[in-house]
Amino acid sequence: MFDKVKYVSGIAGAPCTRELKKEARYQFEKKNKIDWHVLGFTIDEWERQKRFNTGERGNTIPVLITELITKQDCFKIVEKAGIKLPVIYSLGYPNANCIGCVKSNSPTYWNLVRKTFPDVFEERAIQSRRIGCRLVVRKKKRIFLDELLETDKGGKMKSYDCGIFCDTK
Asked: What is the SS3 string spanning the chain?
């Protein structure tokens, strides 16, 4: 997809958000009458919920926010029900997104990808260089993945939840 559009990610978000999430929802809404959207935004994401209501749809029922449920609360609920969390969390990732999420610019994240999924890291490094997208921010400067040192670190990894309504801010 990225090679086709010659764009990986940036100020306008990522094409995967538009194509795989938003466009799928728009197509569904064209064929089905939607009274309400019940979203999985947690209390930690109330600002995302607010942006969604303002920029996308106002007909939402924010059940997790209303009940003050955090992401960690959700994990506990799922585990208490006997459901295993995706293995990706046990590898140190903050979310169960696509491996090598192009929306992350964290050296910490990308070095984790390099360590746990070296083939994905290499593929993204080649692809981003070919397209000309500098995915990583190191010392306030954007660099290509192949310029990232294994010792580079950023802050704590941010939570890039890419549920059905991916945050493109």
From this structure: CHHHHCCCCECCECHHHHHHHHHHHHHHHHHCCCCCEECCCCHHHHHHHHHHHHHCCCCEECHHHHCCCCHHHHHHHHHHCCCCCCHHHHCCCCCCCCCCCCCCCCHHHHHHHHHHCHHHHHHHHHHHHHHCCCCEEECCEEECHHHCCCCCCCCCCCCCCCCCCCCCC
